[in-house]
Amino acid sequence: MPGQKRRATIQDVARLAGVSSATVSRVLNQTVFVNPKTQEKVRNAIESLHYVPSSAAQALAGNKTKTIGLFVHGISEVFFVPLLRGIELSASKAGYNLLIHTTYSQQKNPAYKMLGHHNTDGVLVFSDSLNDEELGHLVSRGVPCVLIYHSPPNGLRIPSINIDNMAGAIQVVDHLIHIHQRRRIVFLRGPSNNHDAVWREKGYRQALEQNDIAYDESLVSDGNFHFQTAADSMQGLIRKGTAFDAVFCADDGSAFGAYAALKDAGIRVPQDVSLAGFDDVYFAAHFSPGLTTVQAPTEEVGKLAVDTLLGRIRDKDIPEHVLLPTRLKIRQSCGCVE
Prior knowledge:
Blueprint: H1 10-17, H2 21-29, H3 36-49, H4 54-62, E1 67-72, H5 80-93, E2 97-102, E3 122-126, H6 132-140, E4 145-148, E5 160-163, H7 165-178, E6 185-189, H8 195-210, E7 220-222, H9 227-240, E8 246-249, H10 252-264, E9 274-276, E10 293-295, H11 298-313, E11 321-324, E12 327-329
Parallel strand pairs: 1-2, 1-3, 3-4, 4-5, 5-11, 6-7, 6-8, 8-9
Antiparallel strand pairs: 10-12
């Protein structure tokens, strides 16, 4: 059996990339401008050789980089405010900095190369910001990872922090059925590849089944966690003459979009139609009428994700998967009086 391979050096990287060791150092430290094409050659050589800079390796061994990374698709939605607040609070309390990489735009280099041993002690991965292959690359290189709002792919053991989406959806649909006698409940679902969206739709369908209401595909349309998508879907249902007496949206942003479409059509909330969302973002309480929604512990998810990652970095025993509870937050949009 062959012995352990010699660890690659900065000189090895320089030879493979066809540049000087000083250029490699500049690319790693990002202190001096280096031509993008040259940077790409150097990063490809680093990846090919699995090179870890000696200073970063020493920092990792002593847990001294004091930086954790966060992969996130984008941070434009109001949902991310409490999540980032929770992450930052826990990281700061532990004396760690936070390095964020967004994966929304197309990258020449794979996203997983942007955060790792060279600049962090470990990474948080939000939802679908990395695909299964990219997660596999991080794990194979020994980068400590924790998933947020996402379950690990088959074959990968990565701790994850999730909320009980299914139970939350069941609560809100049950409320619409039992308290407000709604039976034609529109569901504006989230993105098909999103962990939260999948489980919220399962909760919607299970609540209908438990209440002996047949699932009706004509009442389900796209919300995509997006105001305008939800508004367009709602307008389409209204134009078709679809009969409904309630709308449950997979997130609050979609609920705001649905409300705009209902209002434009002269349909009153909650007098004519009950409306409910999911997440309980800040604006939900200040909306008029106040939005009935499922309260998710978003800030707590951020805090716990950091604590779990630090436990993994320090090689402590940590729970493999955590499921935080959700609860129904009743306001006026469903027809209740607070």
